[in-house]
Design brief:
The chain is 78% helix and 0% strand. The protein is mostly helical.
Length: 178
């Protein structure tokens, strides 16, 4: 990707997060966002179809790292060695902690977190060949573990105590897997 495009998307991303802390995402206008990002309205529409498209893109940027990790999760391995998985997730969250704190304060946090949890559960289940119908117990365990981990991560922001968080999440994963 061209570095000018990267710079523009980063400016829009940062401006969107700043504005979402100040007001409801549905009330942010394209002009307001463009002014905050220091871009022209035509530049905005070169990269995004609408504000909804822009919001979705911003959320996707934050969550891509965590979702990518979930695609590689072997359900049985989590029970045997949850620390490796947990540490990778925490590292991804740490990389985006500043943005996630702004996101946490925004009005779209709740619905977006729900969507993230669903995506993570589906990715982990699909990777392991699980379905709700045939692997209800495993699917339920994944759902509870993912929900608990995400809620814990969000609750701990901005003060992530990596050691305590890792220990808590590993204990939780081991209890779901037993």
């Amino acid at each position: 990707m061209d570095r000018r495009i990267k710079r523009t998307k980063a400016a829009v991303f940062n401006a969107m997060l700043d504005l979402m802390v100040e007001k409801d995402a549905g009330k942010i206008t394209v002009l307001e966002l463009c002014k905050r990002a220091d871009i022209n309205k035509s530049t905005f529409y070169l990269h995004y179809k609408s504000m909804e498209d822009c919001l979705e893109s911003c959320f996707q940027i934050i969550m891509n790292g965590v979702v990518d990790i979930s695609k590689l999760v072997n359900y049985n391995e989590i029970g045997r060695n949850p620390k490796a998985f947990v540490d990778r997730v925490i590292d991804e969250v740490e990389k985006s902690a500043e943005y996630l704190c702004k996101f946490k304060a925004s009005t779209i946090c709740g619905p977006s977190i729900k969507m993230l949890k669903q995506n993570l559960v589906e990715n982990i289940a699909n990777y392991n060949g699980f379905s709700k119908e045939n692997n209800y117990y495993e699917y339920a365990n994944i759902t509870f573990a993912v929900g608990g981990m995400i809620d814990l991560l969000i609750e701990m922001l901005p003060n992530l105590n990596k050691e305590l968080l890792s220990k808590s999440m590993c204990t939780m994963l081991q209890s779901y897997n037993n």
